[in-house]
Design brief:
With 129 residues, the chain is an alpha/beta fold. 40% of the residues lie in helices and 22% in strands.
C-alpha cells in the first residue's frame, strides 16, 4: 500500500454517501493521493475556500443540496475539478454542462485517469490556487 506523502497531489473529495466516500478515500490514498473529504455542502464550501488542493471531485447532489457553489469557489481559485453524478449531465444546470462529469457508480480507473488529466491540464497552465 502506498502511503501519500507531503509531496503527493491533494484531492478534495465531496461525497455524501459515507461508504462510497470511505472506499474512494482508501483507493485514492493507495493510488498516491492525499485526500480531503467533505460529506455536506457546508463542509465542502469551507474546504473549497480554505484548503490547499490540486484537484477536486464534486458529487453534484449532496443530500438534496447541489455542489455548484463549491464549483464556483474552485473556479475562482483556479482549481480543476470534475463533477460526479448518477444522473449524468441531466442533473447539471446549463452553466456547468461544459465541466467534466464522472458517471456514478464510480469506475476507479476512469476516476484516476480523470484526476491525472485534470492535474496535467493544471500543470500546463501554471499551477493551482
Amino acid at each position: 500500500m502506498n502511503t501519500p506523502n507531503s509531496a503527493a497531489p491533494r484531492v478534495l473529495l465531496v461525497e455524501d454517501e459515507v461508504m462510497v466516500s470511505m472506499m474512494l478515500e482508501d483507493l485514492l490514498e493507495r493510488a498516491g493521493y492525499r485526500v480531503i473529504t467533505a460529506s455536506n455542502l457546508d463542509d465542502a464550501l469551507r474546504l473549497a475556500q480554505s484548503s490547499d488542493m490540486d484537484v477536486a471531485v464534486l458529487d453534484v447532489n449532496l443530500d438534496g443540496e447541489l455542489s455548484f457553489p463549491v464549483a464556483d469557489i474552485l473556479r475562482a481559485r483556479g482549481i480543476a475539478f470534475t463533477f460526479a453524478s448518477g444522473y449524468g449531465t441531466d442533473g447539471v444546470s446549463a452553466g456547468y454542462r461544459s465541466e467534466n462529469m464522472l458517471q456514478k457508480p464510480y469506475d476507479i480507473k476512469t476516476l484516476l485517469n480523470e484526476l491525472s488529466r485534470l492535474r496535467a491540464n493544471v500543470e500546463r497552465v501554471g499551477g493551482t490556487g
